Amino acid sequence: MASFENKLKDVIIKLHEIEALKFGMFKMKVGIESPVYVDLRSVISYPEILENIADLMWEFAALRNIECDQLCGVPYAALPIAALMSSRSKIPMVMRRKEAKKYGTKKLIEGKFNPGDNCVIVEDVVTSGSSVLETVVDLHSEGLNVTSVLVVVDREQGGSHNLSEKGVAMNSLCTLSKILQVLKEAGQINQDVVDSVRKYIAASQIHPDGTFLTPQPRTENVNPSRLTLPFTARADQAVNPVAAKLLKVMVSKQSNLCVAADVTSASRLISLAESAGPYVCLFKTHIDIVEDFSPQLIQDLLAAAQKHNFLLMEDRKFADIGHTVSLQYSQGIHKISSWADLVTVHPIPGEGVITGLKSAVTNLHRGCFLVVEMSSAGNLASPNYVASSMEISKKHPDFVAGIVCQTSGTVQNPGLLQLTPGVSLDCQNDGHLGQQYNSPEDIVMSRGADIAVVGRGIIQATDPAQAAQEYRAKLWAAYEKRVSSVKNV
Ligand SMILES: O=c1ccn([C@@H]2O[C@H](COP(=O)(O)O)[C@@H](O)[C@H]2O)c(=O)[nH]1
User: Fold this and answer.
1) MF terms per GO, please (predicted)?
2) What is this model's ipTM?
């Protein structure tokens, strides 16, 4: 049976063939010209493609553990897709009218539902997210809960960010970047088209009110966003000294690869530090899984870090009250604060978790990554949780080096690094264990990772050094592609 990834590629290629995806110059609703146009209304003339899209959307929703009582299609292009998804899943559907009826029931929402029902919106294309937000307002006014939207194509022009600011998580089957990648690989578009669309995406981020987050047209003086500013320039904007150092290491080693060293013996840990070390900027440990831990292991790790010029991160995921985490950080057998440049922290306890950690490391150059979204299926990070966590990070720029998250809109500040786990070349998830993988290209281009975390893809490879080299090359090429979209503007 074809994999999800292959089925998605097929659909993208067919959409291009039937001209539902077009390249040229098109005037958009928001008044700018776009080199790409996505028009999924024509798909109703191709029932097989329509069915494939609906099936993929449903498979995608299941992969993301999206559950609901109602599906809501947004007129017009998404209606048939939502209807097929409803028929397949047996989840009932409601429909938002474009305008309230002027006669009869004057209903805004058609279909049967109960107040408090959880509703997932199905949309064909998202640009700024304004149509989805209008639908959310109407659904809320009728008593329905809306926390997520399923989208066929994300044009990557700010929709995800705008929706998440209003508490709605956007889950997109594919992005414009993904479409470019698939069509380029299939030989259906050339590099010039890819470059012009990338340049357009970078230069036309839109607020839901139609104003641009980036000025139009771009000028020499435009301050590029986190996603397009080169790491060298971002090092100057980092407030936390470890973030600045890490960015410099990344540039000097041309590596945005972090290896997740999930091994259980000291010898394997050191052997991995020696073999993968030359290719990584960051070496991530779970020191508590090492069965023969001793202080010597830390000395050996520090020596390897110095020899190969990488930083050490202990993925401890602190998640307790400030007083307790300060002890967990500095005491016990691992004495993490004495050797780990960086640690990971869950913001769930509130700001005290950071003040607690900070209180344990006066005078040391240390930093943390806040885990605001996880890569695992069914994780509980809601858009509100993500937004509140980002507020906490803003209060401690001296200690927060970056954010662990999965979506490109979460981190705006170029001085913060986005660290993203869930990366593998074959993209095969690990079943009931919950990990969800993306390709190196997607993680950097679509999901906005500055640093990608690769564990089993490297440590279970027959030759970890060669695997690390391969991941490093692919991840760095994706980063260069991301920033090059604005280099010559
Ligand atoms: O959301 C998260 C946060 C952390 N991790 C960690 O990353 C690695 C991933 O290992 P793989 O073998 O590449 O799946 C692992 O150490 C996790 O603890 C994550 O996966 N997701």
Assistant:
1) orotate phosphoribosyltransferase activity; orotidine-5'-phosphate decarboxylase activity
2) 0.96
Q: How far apart (Å, rounded) are the C-alpha atoms in residues 275 and 255?
A: 15
The answer regarding whether domain 4-203 maps to CATH 3.40.50.2020 reads: yes
Instruction: Judge contact between 373 and 418, C-beta under 8 A.
Output: no
The Cα–Cα gap between 104 and 107 comes to 8
In 3D, which of 80, 64, 55 has the Cα closest to residue 2? 55
Pairing of strands 118-126, 109-110: unpaired
348 alpha-carbon distance from chain centroid: 20
Give the C-alpha separation, 430 to 442, whole Å.
18
Domain residues of the chain, as ranges? 4-203, 224-485
Please write the tens of the pLDDT for every residue from 111-124: 999 999 999 999 99
CA dist 8 and 152 (Å) reads 11
Question: How far, in Å, is the centroid of ligand 1 from the Cα of 197?
Answer: 32
The one-letter amino acid code at 114 reads N
- How many angstroms separate the alpha carbon of residue 453 from the centre of ligand 1? 7
**Which residues approach ligand 1 with their CB closer than 6 A?**
260, 262, 315, 371, 374-375, 404, 421-422, 435, 453-457
Number of neighbouring beta carbons within 10 Å of residue 69: 16
Cα 463–Cα 467–Cα 472 angle in degrees, nearest 5: 150
Asked if residue 74 lies in contact with residue 135, where contact means CB atoms within 8 angstroms, the answer is yes
pLDDT per position as a tens digit, 183-213: 999 999 998 888 888 888 877 777 666 666 6
Eight-state DSSP code of residue 140: H
Rounded Cα–Cα distance for residues 368 and 402 (Å): 7
